[in-house]
Amino acid sequence: MRSRIFSLIFSIRLMGLLLSALALWVFAQIADEVLEQETQTFDQSILLAIRQMHTPIGDRIMLGITFLGEPVFLLLICLGIGIRLLYYHRRSQATT
Predict the structure, then answer these.
(1) Which of 9, 37, 67, 85 pairs as cysteine with 94 (C-beta 3.0–4.6 A)?
(2) Distances in Å between the alpha carbon of 21 and those of 8, 9, 34, 45?
C-alpha cells in the first residue's frame, strides 16, 4: 500500500515537472515570435477589436476591476478575513 502511494506521488510530481517544462517551452516559442515582431499583425487586430468595444461605462467597469488589485483594498480584505477566522476560533487558519 505504501509503495503504491509513493509511486502515485512520484507520478504526479513527474507529470507536473513535464507539464511545467512544456509550458516553459511554449512560452519561449511565443517570446521568440514576439521578439522577432512576427506577431505584429495579430497584436494590431486585437488592439483594434478592443478599441471598437470602448465605451465610457466599460472604462468605469475596468477601473473598478483594477481597483480590486490595489494593495490597500487587498489589505482590508485580508484583515477582514483574518478577524472573521479569529472570531470563529480558527487561529491556525487565520495566521497562515
Answers:
(1) 85
(2) 20, 18, 20, 30
| Residue 1 three-state SS | coil
- The whole model's pTM is what? 0.49
What is the spatial distance between Cα 27 and Cα 78, in angstroms, rounded to a whole number?
32
Query: Cell triple for residue 63?
Result: 477601473
Give the C-alpha separation, 52 to 57, whole Å: 14
pLDDT in tens, 58-75: 999 999 999 999 999 999
- For the chain, the straight-line distance linking the first and the last C-alpha, in angstroms and rounded, comes to 32
Task: Answer yes or no: is pLDDT of 6 > 90.
Answer: no
Q: Rounded to whole angstroms, how far apart are CA atoms 14 and 20? A: 10
